[in-house]
Write a structure and sequence with these properties.
The chain is mainly beta. It has a single domain (about 35-175), classed as Electron Transport, Fmn-binding Protein, Chain A (Pnp Oxidase, Chain A). The protein has helices spanning about 15-30, 75-80, and strands at about 5, 5-10, 35-40, 45-50, 55-60, 65-70, 85-90, 105-110, 115, 115-120, 125-130, 135-145, 150-160. The strands form 3 sheets. It has a 7-stranded antiparallel beta sheet, covered by helices on one side. Strands 8-9-10-11 form a 4-stranded antiparallel beta sheet, with no helix packed on it. The longest helix has 14 residues, at about 15-30. The radius of gyration is 17 Å and the shape is globular. The structure holds flavin mononucleotide. Flavin mononucleotide binds near residues 75 and 103.
Amino acid sequence: MPVQNGLVGPFPEGADPEEHDKLRRRILWKMPSGLYVVGSTDRGDRRNGMTLNWATQLGFDPKLLGIGVEQEAFTHELITIGGVFSLNLLDREDRAIVRKFTKPVEVDLGAKTLNGFPFHDGRTGAPVLDQAVAYLDCEVRQSVDTGGHTLFIGEIVDCGFQKDEETPVLRMEDTRMNYGG
Ligand SMILES: Cc1cc2nc3c(=O)[nH]c(=O)nc-3n(C[C@H](O)[C@H](O)[C@H](O)COP(=O)(O)O)c2cc1C
């Protein structure tokens, strides 16, 4: 990938790399996205929860869900070992929770809490937050290196609503946060 002034290209002919980089980031940040917590486990005693917005459905048959995970993240290590993950859809009223899941969490397997938030193990063993509006429980079918991140493509093997289906869920735009760009 062409890099100019430390900025990742490509850049259109004659474009100023700095200006183009800023424009590209503003457009990437304008893409609407949900804001979730990804649950992961090594299928032993280790669990983690991580705030994530790079998530999308990728297939009808099989039912596939894709998430983009930083290769440095503890979550990446656990998904690589355990081969499973959960996507937790959050109540829009719970927006404060996402700041609690931006680094490896305190796990209490006895009390079944992640940073103090109650969880239970999903069918795959991946943790599901008890307060999530809904969850998708997945087994990894493919992992694609995307340079610094990995696209984990999981098949949905279980799912459920835990709150009223009409409950508004959290989106990036409900926060002042950004990721990517
Ligand atoms: C609003 C927001 C969105 C994020 N989205 C992603 C994402 O889509 N993918 C990702 O790998 N990390 C994302 N992160 C960073 C992770 O939450 C976390 O900081 C980092 O990956 C380390 O996670 P770990 O606890 O698994 O080590 C996001 C952080 C914030 C605050």
